[in-house]
Prior knowledge:
The structure is a homodimer. By secondary structure, the first copy, chain A, is of the alpha+beta class. Chain A is built from 9 helices and 14 strands.
Amino acid sequence: MNFENWTCPLPLRDYPNIVLGHGGGGKLSAELVEHLFLPAFRNSALANLGDSAVLTLPAGRLAYSTDSFVVRPLFFPGGSIGELAVNGTVNDLAMSGAKPLFLSAGFILEEGFSLAQLGEIVTRMAEAARQARVQIVTGDTKVVERGHGDGVYINTSGIGIVPDGIHIGPAQARPGDVILVSGTIGDHGMAIMSVREGLQFDTEIESDCAPVADLVADLLPIGGIRVLRDPTRGGVASSLNEIAASSAVGMVIDDVSLPVNEQVQSACSLLGLDPLYVANEGKLLAIVAPENADAILERMRTHVVAERACKIGRVTSEHPGMLVSRTRIGATRVVTMQLGEQLPRIC
Amino acid sequence: MNFENWTCPLPLRDYPNIVLGHGGGGKLSAELVEHLFLPAFRNSALANLGDSAVLTLPAGRLAYSTDSFVVRPLFFPGGSIGELAVNGTVNDLAMSGAKPLFLSAGFILEEGFSLAQLGEIVTRMAEAARQARVQIVTGDTKVVERGHGDGVYINTSGIGIVPDGIHIGPAQARPGDVILVSGTIGDHGMAIMSVREGLQFDTEIESDCAPVADLVADLLPIGGIRVLRDPTRGGVASSLNEIAASSAVGMVIDDVSLPVNEQVQSACSLLGLDPLYVANEGKLLAIVAPENADAILERMRTHVVAERACKIGRVTSEHPGMLVSRTRIGATRVVTMQLGEQLPRIC
């Protein structure tokens, strides 16, 4: 029997949209990997096509994180679900002081989703990965029937190396520490909401979606960084509340010091939202020792992602677990965690 | 101002079902983590509640893998999406010869999903993790609106350590090698299909969902293992086709040697399916050097997950990239990769 010249008798494989078979582990799955994912994410670990990637890492403690992305719409001013999926996990790793190295990517596709759109998303993920200097080394694709998904959901996980001597974590804040934010707040959430609500401004609100790992790597040698957090879902208010609870300290911020873009402020006013609770995707909060605060702030401002960095408050031994804000008229208000969310499916 | 005795004025937080707010990064999200995930997955890395877990690993190469799980129904004879999500990734890591250590878990929940069912799934994940001796150290929860999901989708990723000197991969098969399977094939896929199609048998078909990492760890010291693969989606046929392509070798299997449970065979016949293409979730294929095959087979059979392990074929230099099967009547057929899938949403 001669099998050499045998070929598939059914050349049916030119689909413009995702079909269930793309998730079936057969030829269609293999073609998606070979023609879409491999060329975009190109690296030797992924090209081996094993059940897992095998990696050689430098010695050190490992940071490990995961996030699923269900943002709607998939494309928005300043980014897409693709950049979000890469930068979101890169930034989570950086919040431990880690240098992000490798990502995994899991796609849940809805039957009927456009392959052209998937291609665009994957291309943007690849570009974001290049920019953040991480490799996407392992992945998975599942397909669900029409009406059981929403185009595409993406999960990424990531691993990075934590440098020796770095011990950053949500329980490290101490009374007297200074609270810094790396730039304007609320841009990502309001970019999404503007699209959804059809809001028009003179200039479009753009998501701040960006990697902040290089910024973190540049700040670490200065010393004095106790806590880092990227204020995504729930915004600055929720992040500071969580840190206050973990560290058993109080926090005081000044409303007037909060950097907010004019259009973001207008959109928030229109929709009755508080920018303190709106998601960011390229910012970080840093709780730092008072003696290092100025040096850290100065260094931050040399980075394009943190030009508008500023001090927004301080840590106190009073009212532990609680965040309060001094308002423009000099009053004090408690800034609680929200019960649920004001903006669903923002990331 | 005295904040000490301040409490939330809205004690609204006793929800029997998932609401959008459970994915919002506010109090409801925090409660889900604190009351559901933390107690079930209990470990110090997770309890730190940082943006990423910080882990100390033994030296060595790292295996890294990810899988999303969209199985329907969520509960089936022999398991649930919870055990699948843990064992699926544990087994992918083991296929590199790695000792699995840590998992991440990302949940995409649909608004309205029962918290009791979520609790049951999480409990089963925790039990599966204990059994496979891995820790779930980092996680994420998103919520999508009713009609944009299907109860719950779970992504897990995992990392493990590959022992020194172990180089197992899909390109390592050589002519003359022996093909082993660790037990009966098709059980998982047919357990799912029996539930979906309402098939009745004298004894219920149970999924084989189980971790095979301990089995692998026990086989490695024997030596001679070239390739390992867990034949999930696409079954044994797709896995062997992929290995044949990666290693540029041919493969010949004997239909009569394939171990298939009687009920699985009956269900396959009823539904017009070939067990060679049906998913397994607790089996492995091993391509091994001929001189080690008997010792490996003997050792396999001492494990409860591999009691019915057997030789099913051999690797050949003929027809590279192709899998052929000798049928019961002595004929030879080409066993191709399927185009799409015969069984959607099996894992």
